Amino acid sequence: MGVRKRNSANARKEAKKKIAFAKLNNCPTSPRKMRLIADLIRGMGVEKALAELKLNPKEASGRMEKLLLSALANWEVKNEGKRMDESNLYVSEVKVDSGRMLKRVQPAPQGRAHRVRKRSNHVTLVVNSRNKDNN
């Protein structure tokens, strides 16, 4: 690895250490369904997002709520001594990527077979503070 590449990689690592995020890999929900929930909470305050997820009837909202609580716990670990109430936390970024796809076969009429694709996704949720002095 060259010097410039190593320096930029180290800079990315240092920047990543300062942000609080949580990842959920191979979640057995289709990415399209999870993106509906992600779009719902993106940019929201943490308290409002938790309330929205708790009241939403979709199955993906339960998984997203658990992920948001994990990101908040990670924020507490990285920012010792700072209070969540005063930091004015919000969901700054939610990314939903397609994950592994399980391919299955379902019987169809007249001896045929249809392919069933069971999709999964990867979710990355980043929590940040709106206050400039806490960044």
List the helices and strands and how they pair.
Elements: H1 3-18, E1 20-27, H2 31-41, H3 46-55, H4 59-78, H5 84-87, E2 89-98, E3 102-107, E4 113-118, E5 121-129
Antiparallel strand pairs: 1-5, 2-5, 3-4
Helix pairs in contact: 3-4
Task: Give the tags.
Ribosomal Protein L22, Chain A; two-stranded antiparallel ribbon; alpha+beta; 135 residues; three-stranded antiparallel β-sheet
Would you tell me which CATH topology applies?
A: Ribosomal Protein L22, Chain A
Largest sheet: 3 strands, antiparallel
Count of runs of 4 or more consecutive helical residues: 5
Strand content is 25-35%
Can you put this structure into words, describing what you see?
The chain has 135 residues and is an alpha+beta fold. It has one domain (20-134): Alpha-Beta Complex (Ribosomal Protein L22, Chain A), CATH 3.90.470.10. 45% of the residues lie in helices and 29% in strands. It has 5 helices and 5 strands; from the N terminus they run H-E-H-H-H-H-E-E-E-E. It has helices spanning 3-18, 31-41, 46-55, 59-78, 84-87, and strands spanning 20-27, 89-98, 102-107, 113-118, 121-129. Strand 3 and strand 4 form a beta hairpin. Helix 3 (46-55) packs antiparallel against helix 4. The longest helix is centred in the middle third of the chain and has 20 residues, at 59-78. It is flat.
